[in-house]
Structure formats: structure tokens, C-alpha cells
Specification:
- The chain is an alpha+beta fold.
- Helices cover about 30% and strands about 15% of the residues.
- It has 5 helices and 4 strands.
- It has a 4-stranded antiparallel β-sheet with strand order 1-2-4-3, with helices on both faces.
Length: about 180
């Protein structure tokens, strides 16, 4: 098991994946991490759609005009959803779940990348939420936060450079 201090240094966004499928046990561990992530008032109100169908993944990659096309190569796309009427912290809760999945994927040796969908869309004004809702038959009360691409890494990324950490952005007691 990788120590957390090393895991945060190693986890980088990967946008290139091999065609190798993700092992079912690994996927279960990734989803376990999401389900164990902290939530506001312990509501656990998020929802996740694991997409393995290649045609649907390709359609999801076109949900916005920029920044999602690499999803086509990923064997797994996990759509993170919340109900804004049920939980005013749905964005925060979904974000915590998404990064929990990404750290778990890294610990398993898999690559991942967050794809922002909330507030994004197509140049014609269609929201990514509307596009994804149509592809996956998502109920009207649910909103799409992001899609997390998961797969075996097809590229090498250097660990985070500790010399580039912005320690000056940390303030003690006051600004």
C-alpha cells in the first residue's frame, strides 16, 4: 500500500489510456472509495453511473466542446451526480467522492482524470448536463457534476514537483 504522502505526489491527471479493461475488483475498490467519502450531514446523497459501454463513452466525450474528447480512449467513465434540492452541498460532496475515486485509482496503478461538466456545454448553448442526461436517462432532479475517466495509463507523468509548492499561499491565523 502506498503511503498517502506519496500518493498525493504521484497522482496526476492522465488523458491517455490503453485499451486494457479495468479489472472488476479494481472498479469495485474505486466505487467503494466514493461510497466511503465524507458527505455533508452524512447524507450520502450522491449518485454514480459507471459507464463501460464504448458507444456511450464516445457520446459522453462530446458532451461539451472542449476538454472531454480524450474520454473516448478511457475504458471506464464514472458520472458523478447530485440532487440540488435534496442537498445544498451536492457539489462539495460529489467533488470529495470524485477525488477519493482518483486517489484509489492511483493507488491501484490506474490513471484518472476529472472532466468538469457542471456549467459547461456546447457552443450552441446546450448544457453538458442536458447532453449527458439524454445519453444515460438521468432523472430530472439529478444534476451532473463531472465525469471521471479511469483506465490503464498509456503515458508517463512525473510526480508533483515539491519545489513548485506554493507555501506562500498558506496563512496562519490571519491573512
Amino acid at each position: 500500500m502506498t503511503e498517502f504522502k506519496d500518493l498525493v505526489k504521484l497522482r496526476r491527471s492522465h488523458r491517455k489510456f490503453t485499451a486494457e479493461p479495468v479489472d472488476g475488483d479494481d472498479l469495485k475498490m474505486i466505487m467503494r472509495a466514493a461510497l466511503m467519502s465524507p458527505t455533508s450531514k452524512g447524507q450520502r446523497a450522491w449518485q454514480f453511473i459507471v459507464v463501460e459501454n464504448k458507444t456511450d463513452i464516445e457520446k459522453l466525450s462530446d458532451a461539451k466542446d472542449m476538454g472531454s474528447q480524450f474520454l473516448r480512449e478511457a475504458p471506464i467513465a464514472i458520472v458523478v451526480l447530485g440532487d440540488p434540492q435534496q442537498n445544498d452541498c451536492w457539489i462539495e460532496d460529489g467533488s470529495i467522492a470524485a477525488i477519493s475515486m482518483q486517489y484509489q485509482a492511483e493507488e491501484l496503478g490506474l490513471g484518472s482524470c476529472w472532466i468538469q461538466m457542471r456549467g459547461r456545454g456546447l457552443n450552441d448553448g446546450t448544457s453538458a448536463d442536458t447532453v449527458i442526461r439524454g445519453i444515460l436517462n438521468i432523472p430530472e432532479n439529478m444534476s451532473v457534476l463531472c465525469v471521471v475517466a479511469i483506465g490503464h495509463k498509456a503515458d508517463e507523468r512525473k510526480p508533483q514537483n515539491e519545489e513548485r509548492l506554493k507555501w506562500e499561499n498558506i496563512h496562519i491565523d490571519r491573512w
